Structure formats: C-alpha cells, structure tokens
Amino acid sequence: MYLKDSEAPGTISRTWTASSPRYPFVLGLAAVAPKAGSQGYHQRSGFTCILLEDVFQLGQFIFIVTFTTFLLRCVDYNVLFANQPNNRTRPGLLHNKVTLSDAILPSSQCAQRIHSSSLMVFLLILATAFWLFQLLRSVCNLFSYWDIQVFYREALHIPLGELGSVSWAEVQSRLLALQRSGGLCVQPRPLTELDVHHRILRYTNYQVALANKGLLPTRCALPWGGSVAFLSRGLALNVDLLLFRGPFSLFRGGWELPDAYKRSDQRAALAARWRRSVLLLAAVNLALSPLVLAWQVLHAFYSHAELLRREPGALGTRRWSRLARLQLRHFNELPHELRARLARAYRPAAAFLRAAAPPAPLLALLARQLVFFAGALFAALLVLTVYDEDVLAVEHVLTAMTALGILATVARSFIPDEQAQSRSPQLLLQAALAHMHYLPEETGPAGKASAYRQMARLLQYRAVSLTEELLSPLLTPLFLLFWFRPRALEIIDFFHHFTVDVAGVGDICSFALMDVKRHGHPQWLSEGQTEASLSQRAEDGKTELSLMRFSLVHPQWRPPGHSSKFLGHLRGRVQQDAATWGANSVRSPPTPGVLSNSSSPLPETFLANLLVQPLLPPQDLSPTAPCPAAATASLLASISRIAQDSSCVSPGGTGGQKLAQLPELASAEMSLHAIYLYQLHQQQQQQELWGEASASSLSRPWSSPPQTLSPDEEKPSWSSDGSSPASSPRQQWRTQRAQNLFPGGFQEPTDTQKEPSQAPSID
Questions:
Q1: Cα–Cα 20 to 30 A to 479, which of 94, 334, 557, 609?
Q2: Parallel/antiparallel/unpaired status of strands 499-502 and 717-718
Q3: With the C-alpha atoms ordered 528, 534, 535, 540, is the resulting torsion angle positive or negative?
Q4: More confident residue, 280 or 701
Q5: How many Å apart are CA 433 and CA 668, to the nearest integer?
C-alpha cells in the first residue's frame, strides 16, 4: 500500500502482492465505512443491494414521469366520468358501465396529444436529461462500490455473504489491524479510530458545529413573536453544494480548505465571492422552483396515498426532524449510531409530549363532538353499503365516507390521552435525556411550556415535515438570500477559525478533535481545564458529551493529553460522589447479580428500572439539599464495574452473547453519564444563581486576553491524535453580527488585544 502525492490524505491506494492480481485500485477510506449521506457499502448491505436499490430508484423515476404523462395526455376524462357517451363501444355489446379501456385513448392519439404540447415536450426532455445524469452518477458510484467489495473480500476477508453478520466495529477493527500489519500506509504512524471517523464524517462534523453555533438551521421570525426553524431536504442539499461538494464550494479536492480561507487578510473578498455564489444558486433555485414543486407534489402523492388509505392518522404521528438529527448528533457519531440512539429516545420523548401538552379543554370538547357526529354519519353510510352495495354507486358517497373517516381521525388527535397525562413529565423527560443526551431548558415560570415547544421542534408531526418539504422549493431561495447571504462573513470566519490541519487526514473541523482545552465549557466539568473563550465553547456540553461517548464506544482508543485528563477527572468525580452517597445513604447501589437477574437484556432492564425514579435535580433545590448527582454516580460506578467484569454479563450465557451485550452496556453507561453531567451542569447553574460562584467567576481562564500570534502560529498544524503544539488556539472571531448568532457573543478585543495585520504569505 502506498499513498500518492496527488491523492487526498483520506485516499488509499493498494498494490496487491504476488498472490493477488497485479492491478492497483484507489479506495477512499471514507467509502469503507457508512457515509453520512448514502450510508455506504456496509450499511447498505453490500454491492448487490446497492445495485438493486439504484436500479429501483431509476425505475421509480421513470414510472412517475411516464404514469403522470399518461394520466395527463392519454385518458379521456369525459368518458371516464360518464360526462359524454362512449363512441368506441364495440358493436353487438351493451355497455352499462364504463370500463378503463373505454377511457384510455389509442396510442397514436396519445402521442399526438403529447407532441401538440410544447411545454410537455420540454418537461419530458428535462426529465430525460436528469435521468441520464442520475444514471451516469449511479454507474460511477457502482464502480467505486465494486472496488470496495474487492477490498472487503480480499483485504478485510469479509465476503458478501457474511457482511450482514459483521458489525461495523468489527470492520473497523480489521481495517486498523491491516494498517498496523503494513497492509495500508496512509501516514507514518498507525491509524486510530478517530482517524477513521474524521475521514468519514469530515463534512458532517462541520454541520454539527454550525448547528451548535447557531448558523444552522435557518430561522424565520414570526409576526406574533418567536421564530421557527427550517431545514428541509432541498435546503440541506443547497448548503452542501455551497460549502462542501458544489463547483463553488469552499473545499478543494474534497479534503482541503484553500489557504486563502486560513488567512484573515482576505476574509472580506472571500465573503463577497461567497455572496455571489449564494445569489447565483438562489436564482437557479428560483428558476427551477415550479418544476421542483411539481415533482415534490407528485412524489408525496404517490408515496403517501396508500399509507393514508391504510392509516388515516399516519400524518398525526411524530418523527425526528432534520433539526433533531443535526442538533442531537455528537461529533464523530456515525449515521447508524445516531439512528439507534434516537430510536431508543423516541418512545419517552413522544410520551413526554403527550403528558406535557398544554391543556386545551375547549378544543378537546369540540373534538369529541366532531368525532361523534362524523362517526355517526360514517356508521350510517357503512350500514347502507353493507345492506346494498349499489349505494357506493351513488355520486360522492365513497368520497363522503373517506372524508368523514379522515375528519374523525384528525379530530381524535386533539383529544388528550388520559393514560399519558397521568405519567410524570419530569420522569419522561429524564428517560428521553438518557438517550437524547440533550435536555430542553426549563427557565422561568413558563419552563414547562418552553421545554414542550423545544421538544416539539425536535419530534415534529409527520404532516409538518411533509408540509416543509412541499414548501421547500418556494422557501429555499428566500432563505438563501435572506439568511445565508447576509451571514457570509460569519461563515467564512467560522471555517477560518474552526479548521485545523490533521496530519494524514487533511482539514477537519476543530470541534471534531473533542479537545476540552480548546472547546470545552466550564459549566460542564471543564472548569480549570479549558482555555476556550465565549465564542470557542461548544454549547450544551457538546464537546464533553461527544468525548465521553466516543471513549465508551471505542474503549481501545487512547485520547490525547487534555481529553484524557478530562476523562480521568470525570471518573474521579464519579468515584468521589459515589463514595459520598454510599457513606450518607442507607440504600446500596445495585450489584451485578441483581442487575443480571432478568430474562430481558441487561442494559434495557437496568435503565428501565433506574429511570422510574427522579434523578434530575428540582428547579427549587436548596443549597443544603443532597446532590442527586451522588445517587447517579453510585449507579454509574456500579455499571462501570459490570462493564469491566465480563463475568457479570449474563451469567451462564455464551461468549457470543456476552460480547453482544458489551455495546449495550456502553450505551447504558453513556446514558448515565449524560444524566450525571446534566445534574452537575444544573447544580452549577443553581449555585451561580445563589451567588456562590460570583467570587471565582472573575478569575476564570477563558476571560483572560488572547495572546498575540505570529503569522506562522496563526494556523497550528494538529496531529491526527488531537495533540496541538505549544501555541495557543486560534484567536477569537472578529465579526459584526456574531453577537446575535452565538449565545455567548463575541468578545470585542480592545486596542491592545487586536491582532496585528497578517502578512500575505502562506504557511
């Protein structure tokens, strides 16, 4: 294996040995794993499934275009609706009913009607060109996936038949072992798990950081107050084209940010050029919006018609929004890991929304009456239909029955569930936090309503999601013009200050290093360990929680110095609080035997039994009350001992069963760590409200003035293990609008703190 100088650091070239065919092929390391957008070879179950999926998608496009053209130009609706007599009735036969063949026009007449419409011919030409483009892209991807299949079979020794039984953790383990044995050579030192994730999630980590800093998703102020977030599939595609993969994107070659973006003397010119790119893309979106809107309507109709017929209330169910998948995602979290975590959080989050829904007795009363009257009319028509099926032939009877059924289903959704309202919203929110690793803020007298609104944005109705996608062709150009274009300077500054060069990987987002010293938050157990300014902190404990999750999922990974110090400090705090709880409480922590004494899987049973008790501190916690974090620390220490002692996992089970439960144990341990960190975070916030932290807030390390860097130190080169040189982090942002975008705001430097003008030289 060797790495060509002209190739990206994330690209692997392999020359097979004498026992293998003598041909080189290029394989992107990111393609070995599930990609953030297309899920990749492993998650798509191999080459055969990928091939069939692409073929079916191309065939689906042909079907929608062909069938829609057929309905518009090849059907005589006057005959179909019996508005005129049928002149094509065959002689000798009496037709009392209109058949489908009577309403379908002959092929010659159908072709003539298509050719007579210039607009129809133009649309068909555009559809054909788009289909050919999709075909070409699919063929190119299939060649890459074929090389990946060969790499899996011959290098990783994973044939296609065994791919479904091999987890991604095993694939990654074999890949790292191959590199350590000399089979791969992408950089002088051995690959780590973090290197692999940096290649796979290079762009995704940037998007998560943009969301954490308030640049994503787009927001629109409402006339009656507040704002609404918007991030449709079309808008996400445009953002991807502008920042990462388009012809005018910031990145060059897919892995390198040009040097101009790494220097501060060209930020104004780069922002002006990016504004022009946004304007051009918005104009293209505006010109194509009628076509895209028509396609969205057709695709939504063909996709949801059968679902609504089978389940009329399907649009009233909730699903995780794109905002949730961006805001709740950790740095370096793969797509299938995020899906599994959100799937576990769905039930408690949905139950919380039902239990915490603001009371609306008048609306519930009207909904009950509407359900009664609609159900009565539907029942009468149904009885008449059972008695004589000819009732269905009466005009609009079937339409009325369908409308009454949908009306009753929609009205029933406004009737509160008495069983759900009897459950404690606090316990349900706690259970959701265990898997979401995010807790909506509950501040002020309207805290419960605020938490409900924040959770409703994350877990939105399917009807709301569908409406956003249908309106996306019309709203996307507006958000490009009025959200992204005015913020061009902030976006350029974001990539300037939060991009680091990792040896052997390329340019990545600095947040992806999960460096507590650089991006930690003092209210998340990082006080005294972080040097991050207000603009450099990751909000909501994103750095600390991401670091903890990654270390638990990859126990073999050795974090760099500052991150390792934070993890050691956290484990020491857990042991200290657990000892305090054991000395002051008569209740003892659960033992391994108690936890494994169940027919259900250990982690699920353990968490289910744990989360029925309140763990989060109440809002009115007094300074003298015992800290609930100590109880969680005691439980966390117990499950940590269980995870380290493999004999405690399913006693009597086979080795495979024990091994299969280890990821679930890591998930349960991460859930407890999330609750524990939120307990400490809320405890510190309450202490600051009491004024106990006022004396120490004046001497915090992040409030010290930034050091002046030389041009050579302005962009430090980071090694791929996350360690940095002795130079301090990149200076704080200097932008005009950041005060409104970022919660902490930007610190405007004084005259003595402003950085000197940089020489126009490239490192």
A1: 334
A2: parallel
A3: positive
A4: 280
A5: 12
Q: Report how far residue 212's alpha carbon sits from residue 124's, in angstroms, rounded to the nearest whole number.
A: 43
Please choose, from the candidates 385, 442, 375, the residue with its C-alpha nearest in 3D space to the C-alpha of residue 406: 375
Dihedral sign, Cα of residue 266, residue 267, residue 268, residue 273: positive
11, β-bridge pairs: 28
pLDDT for residue 304: 85
332/535 Cα distance (integer angstroms): 21
First to last CA, the chain: 30
Question: Computed from CA positions of residues 499, 200, 12, 561, in that sequence, does the dihedral angle turn out positive or negative?
Answer: positive
Alpha-carbon Rg for the chain, nearest whole angstrom, is 30
**pLDDT over 60 (residue 250):** yes
The pTM score is 0.80
What is the number of other CB atoms lying within 10 angstroms of the CB of residue 37? 13
Amino acid identity of residue 291, one-letter, is L
> Alpha-carbon torsion 577, 582, 586, 587, what sign?
positive
Measured between alpha carbons, how far is 382 from 385 in angstroms, rounded to an integer? Answer: 5
CB of 715 closer than 8 Å to CB of 501: yes
Reduce the DSSP state of residue 336 to 3 states and report it: helix
Q: What are phi and psi of 34, to 5 degrees?
A: -70, 120
CA distance 462 to 71: 28
Give per-residue pLDDT as tens, 721-748.
Answer: 444 433 333 333 333 333 333 333 333 3
Residue identified by tokens 């003035």 is: 705
Whether the Cβ atoms of residue 34 and residue 200 lie closer than 8 Å to each other: yes
190 or 510, higher pLDDT: 510
Q: Return the closest-CA partner of residue 359 out of 460, 465, 448, 226.
A: 448
User: Within 10 Å of residue 260's Cβ, how many Cβ atoms?
Assistant: 17
**747 DSSP 8-state letter:** -
Q: What distance in Å separates the CA atoms of residue 89 and residue 93, rounded to the nearest whole number?
A: 7
Cα–Cα separations (whole angstroms), residue 535 to 433, 493, 497, 741: 26, 12, 10, 10
> CA separation (Å) from 235 to 162, 232, 282, 586, 616?
38, 5, 10, 56, 37
Q: What does the block give as tokens for 607? A: 């968490």
